[in-house]
Amino acid sequence: DGGITQSPKYLFRKEGQNVTLSCEQNLNHDAMYWYRQDPGQGLRLIYYSQIVNDFQKGDIAEGYSVSREKKESFPLTVTSAQKNPTAFYLCASRPDRGGRSPLHFGNGTRLTVT
Amino acid sequence: AQKVTQAQTEISVVEKEDVTLDCVYETRDTTYYLFWYKQPPSGELVFLIRRNSFDEQNEISGRYSWNFQKSTSSFNFTITASQVVDSAVYFCALSEADNYGQNFVFGPGTRLSVLP
């Protein structure tokens, strides 16, 4: 079955370390997204990519970086510059960049930085 | 600018009660799409429904129904005869037609607790 795989499910890091969250999809979707969710809050867009080798900043890109070298993969790096990295991170994809397509989500990665 | 408001932060009901989750949106576009997602405790967001701005017909799917009213910019979601498995956070979202994937705006979510 097609879907989006995020790994790991839980991730623990020490402050000052960079960490990379994996996101892989086998839906053949062009567009991929990273969202951050804090407790009791909605989703905020970090980065998105509409096509391979291209990506755009979302609303809260500071302290994060991404790459899109393959259509299937859109890893997110949380750098030491991110002041409050502890959060739940959700990866999503969409068949195309048209507004009518729903987002499909992975199961998320819960990152804890101490 | 786009905006989605879900005024109800948390709702608690007893099993078998009906419950309505409110969603109010703002957009300048004439063509747009509205969505509802369910986020169970496991964390994954599950797509429930999409509604086009040019189709105001209400929709029913089993115990779920959606009421879209352009005149009041609302897209409310009703669960009939709620069950414990309906306990989740529900998000309403808005996407404009030609946004090239950038603006898929979510509301803050409503946490629904269905008590046995």
Describe this structure as you would to a colleague.
The complex is a heterodimer of chains A (about 110) and B (about 120). In chain A, strands 2, 4, 5, 6, 9, 10 and 11 form a seven-stranded mixed sheet that branches. Chain A is globular. Chain A is built from no helices and eleven strands. By secondary structure, chain A is an all-beta fold. The mean pLDDT of chain A is about 90. By secondary structure, chain B is mainly β. Helices cover about 0% and strands about 55% of the residues of chain B. Chain B has no helices and twelve strands. In chain B, strand 7 (about 60) and strand 8 form a beta hairpin.
**How many E-type strands of chain B?**
12
Rg from alpha-carbon coordinates of chain A: 13 Å
* Shape label of chain B: globular
The largest sheet of chain B, given as strand count, sense and whether it forms a barrel, is: 6 strands, mixed
Q: Structural class per helix/strand content of chain B?
A: mainly beta
Mean pLDDT of chain B: 92
| End-to-end CA span of chain B | 41 Å
Query: Quick check: average pLDDT of chain A?
Result: 92
Helical residue percent of chain B?
A: under 10%
Oligomerization: heterodimer
Element order of chain A: H for helix, E for strand: EEEEEEEEEEE
Percent helix of chain A, as a range, is under 10%
Q: Which structural class matches the secondary elements of chain A?
A: mainly beta
Number of strands of chain A: 11
The coarse overall form of chain A would be: globular
Largest inter-chain interface?
Answer: A-B, 28 and 30 residues
Nutshell version of this structure?
Chain A is an all-beta fold and 114 residues long. Chain A contains no helices and eleven strands.
Defining key terms:
heterodimer, A: 114 residues, mainly beta, seven-stranded mixed sheet, four-stranded antiparallel sheet, B: 116 residues, six-stranded mixed sheet, 0% helix, 53% strand
